[in-house]
Amino acid sequence: MFIYVLICNTCKELKTFDKFSKKNGSKRAYSHRCKVCHNDYVRNVWYKNNCESQRTATKKYKADNKFKVLSKKYNTTEAVIKKLFKNSNNSCEVCGTGHNLCVDHCHTSGVVRGILCKSCNTSLGMLREDSDRILKLAEYAKTKCSNPDTATI
């Protein structure tokens, strides 16, 4: 039985093939750095030198591929996400704003439910998605917040 080994160009240690990443297009088919040295290089050198360009590229990718990114995040298809936005007219289904839109989903089942703005989505979460609590808060706001003269101490 043969055990194949390589020498890492960074730490100069002799290591088995499983300690190296496969690299397409390379003459030797494996990275010239072992996984430990490669991860150290990425964290301490590459990321520091490419941090801003990486952030910019990520932002651009997310903006250009909005439906693809959301479909992966919520484990559904792009068609479902597009339909949600279309059905909501690209606005929050509660307040109607078109800014800071989020995909509302059930944290228990993972099922996507609709499109809400960040404020409505956060409020729904803070109220623990409890319809009784939401109705009580709406009644409270209706009676206490609409007429400041009725406030009692």
Q: What this model shows, in words?
A:
The chain has 153 residues and is α+β, with helices and mostly antiparallel strands. It has helices spanning 35-64, 66-73, 78-87, 118-126, 131-145; strands at residues 5-7, 14-16, 20-22, 30-34, 101-105, 112-117. The chain contains 5 helices and 6 strands. A two-stranded antiparallel sheet has the order 1-2. The protein has a two-stranded antiparallel ribbon with strand order 3-4. The radius of gyration is 26 Å and the shape is elongated. The N and C termini lie far apart (85 Å). The model has no long low-confidence stretch (mean pLDDT 93).
Outline the secondary-structure elements.
Layout: E1 5-7, E2 14-16, E3 20-22, E4 30-34, H1 35-64, H2 66-73, H3 78-87, E5 101-105, E6 112-117, H4 118-126, H5 131-145
Antiparallel strand pairs: 1-2, 3-4, 5-6
